[in-house]
Write a structure and sequence with these properties.
about 0% strand; about 140 residues; 6 helices; Helicase, Ruva Protein, domain 3; mainly alpha; flat
């Protein structure tokens, strides 16, 4: 009986895994895409945070594309065609925008190397015990 329960459990886990792999839900809504797009009016707010007329127009365009059944990638690429790559909230990892992704890594690496070199050059000798200096002054004061 125990072996049967184990087989039943393993087969149900396998079935659940296979169903999750083969059935993918690509339902896209306007709310999902509002966080990935910046308003094109010049305020540079995310579309979900902007209340201007341009933001409403962009939401209408996105809703129209969702109604037509376009997937997330096609909607994003069509918005890039209309408004340019600057409409994306996160820059793509290609071309000129690659520098934006690499800049923090370069700055942290160079900063770490500079700190290491400064600490390495620094003399590691002990400059004296503060108690010894205090005792010398006490000895001088007692004389």
């Amino acid at each position: 009986m125990r072996e049967f329960k184990l087989r039943l459990l393993l087969s149900s886990l396998l079935l659940t895994y296979l169903l999750s792999v083969f059935i993918s839900v690509d339902a896209v809504s306007v709310i999902d895409l509002e966080g990935d797009v910046v308003c094109s009016c010049g305020c540079y707010k995310l579309l979900k945070n902007c209340d201007c007329y341009t933001a409403e127009q962009m939401r209408d365009k996105i809703a129209e594309m969702v109604q037509r059944g376009l997937d997330r990638g096609k909607i994003i690429s069509s918005l890039q065609d209309i408004y340019g790559k600057e409409v994306l909230a996160t820059p793509p990892k290609e071309g000129l925008f690659t520098g934006l992704w690499m800049y923090p890594i370069v700055v942290l690496s160079v900063g770490s190397i500079v700190v290491y070199l400064i600490l390495r050059r620094r003399n590691s000798e002990w400059y004296g015990d503060p108690d010894e200096n205090i005792n010398e002054f006490e000895d001088i004061a007692e004389m």
